[in-house]
């Protein structure tokens, strides 16, 4: 820890060494802790420099983009730097409040505003990560092609290479992908959080939401909505406020399972066959057509 504090002092050009406050929850990927610098608190995310190359630089660039386009909804970046062995991302520290009904409404409205920011093509300015897995983001104009090739089939191939699925499964996934253009309504490519489960936001004491740990790209907004229903954590007030601000196309509830295919494949690759059944139950519906 002393080495981390000295690195922060040096790269942030501080006159005094920061003071360690506490460790924070950071999942299985990064080490996360809070430091005090003068009268400010900063969140520090740390990882090995070569384990996930430029992961924290990519996250920092994504957060800067969000802060430029949807101000006050993501933590502000203080610094990004690398030492010989480690990479660091320093963020403002924001207090957590109660997850209130008003907070859920504000979260729904905030996401609706974000999703109205659009691009002519899917993808992003660079490849990034979802969790610890690579996420390719080439610029492609058609959502069904992007989702098939660079989300579903990309993760399916990874699962096959790891011996988690058989070749017959990859053929069934390829067949399912042929239906994607019919399954999703045609909409502008929205600015997505990309990994919007209940552990990647909190409500501040002023009832405003703060989102973090994005896996950003432009894509179909129903992907973010589908992820919110994967593990819970979003109330009816969230969906009501979202739909009041930017109504989803009729039938979105029935399409949730299509949007959840991608995170379920990611979890299959990360955590094993327990996530196979929800994937198979969706794509098997299309095998007899």
Which descriptors apply to this entry?
single chain; 289 residues; alpha+beta; Phosphorylase Kinase, domain 1; Aminoglycoside 3'-phosphotransferase, Chain: A, domain 2; 2 domains; 5-stranded antiparallel beta sheet; 3-stranded antiparallel beta sheet; globular
- Give the spatial strand order of the biggest sheet: 1-2-3-5-4
Total E-strand runs: 12
Number of helical segments? 11
Q: Provide the low-confidence segments as ranges.
A: none
Distance between the termini: 59 Å
- Overall structural domain count: 2
Q: Largest sheet, described in full?
A: 5 strands, antiparallel
Gyration radius over CA: 20 Å
CATH superfamily of the largest domain: Aminoglycoside phosphotransferase (APH), C-terminal lobe
Strand content: 15-25%
Structural class: alpha+beta
CATH domain topology of the largest domain: Aminoglycoside 3'-phosphotransferase, Chain: A, domain 2
Order of helices and strands: HEEEHEEHEEEHHHEEEEHHHHH
- Overall, the morphology is globular
Portion of residues in helices? 40-55%
**Quick check: average pLDDT?**
95
Based on the structure given, which CATH architecture of the largest domain is correct?
Alpha-Beta Complex
Level-1 CATH class name of the largest domain: Alpha Beta
Please provide a written account of the structure.
By secondary structure, the protein is of the alpha+beta class. The chain has two domains: 2-92, Phosphorylase Kinase, domain 1; 101-286, Aminoglycoside phosphotransferase (APH), C-terminal lobe (Aminoglycoside 3'-phosphotransferase, Chain: A, domain 2, Alpha-Beta Complex). The chain has eleven helices and twelve strands. The protein has a five-stranded antiparallel beta sheet with strand order 1-2-3-5-4, with helices on one face. A three-stranded antiparallel beta sheet has the order 6-9-12. A hairpin with a 2-residue loop joins strand 2 and strand 3 (40-48). Helix 3 (101-115) packs parallel to helix 8, helix 4 packs parallel to helix 10 (261-271) and helix 7 crosses helix 9 (252-259). The radius of gyration is 20 Å and the shape is globular.
């Amino acid at each position: 820890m002393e080495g981390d504090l000295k690195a922060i002092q040096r790269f942030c050009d501080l006159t005094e060494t920061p003071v360690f406050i506490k460790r924070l929850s950071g999942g299985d990927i990064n080490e996360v802790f809070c430091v005090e610098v003068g009268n400010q608190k900063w969140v520090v995310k740390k990882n090995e420099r070569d384990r996930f190359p430029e992961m924290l630089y990519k996250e920092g660039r994504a957060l800067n983009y969000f802060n430029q386009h949807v101000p006050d909804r993501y933590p502000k970046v203080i610094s990004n730097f690398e030492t010989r062995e480690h990479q660091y991302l320093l963020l403002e520290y924001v207090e957590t409040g109660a997850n209130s009904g008003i907070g859920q409404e504000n979260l729904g409205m905030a996401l609706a505003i974000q999703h109205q920011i659009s691009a002519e093509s899917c993808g992003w300015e660079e490849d990034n990560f979802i969790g610890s897995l690579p996420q390719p983001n080439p610029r492609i104009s058609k959502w069904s092609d992007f989702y098939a090739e660079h989300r579903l089939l990309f993760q399916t191939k990874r699962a096959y290479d790891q011996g988690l699925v058989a070749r017959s499964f990859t053929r069934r996934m390829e067949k399912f992908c042929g239906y994607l253009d019919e399954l999703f309504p045609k909409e502008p490519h929205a600015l997505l959080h990309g990994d919007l489960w209940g552990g990647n936001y909190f409500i501040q004491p002023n009832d405003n939401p703060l989102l973090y740990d994005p896996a950003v790209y432009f894509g179909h907004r129903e992907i973010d909505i589908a992820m919110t229903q994967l593990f819970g954590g979003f109330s009816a007030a969230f969906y009501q406020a979202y739909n009041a601000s930017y109504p989803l196309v009729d039938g979105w509830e029935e399409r949730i399972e299509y949007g959840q295919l991608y995170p379920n494949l990611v979890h299959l690759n990360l955590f094993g066959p327990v996530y196979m059944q929800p994937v198979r139950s969706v794509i098997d519906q299309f095998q007899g057509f």
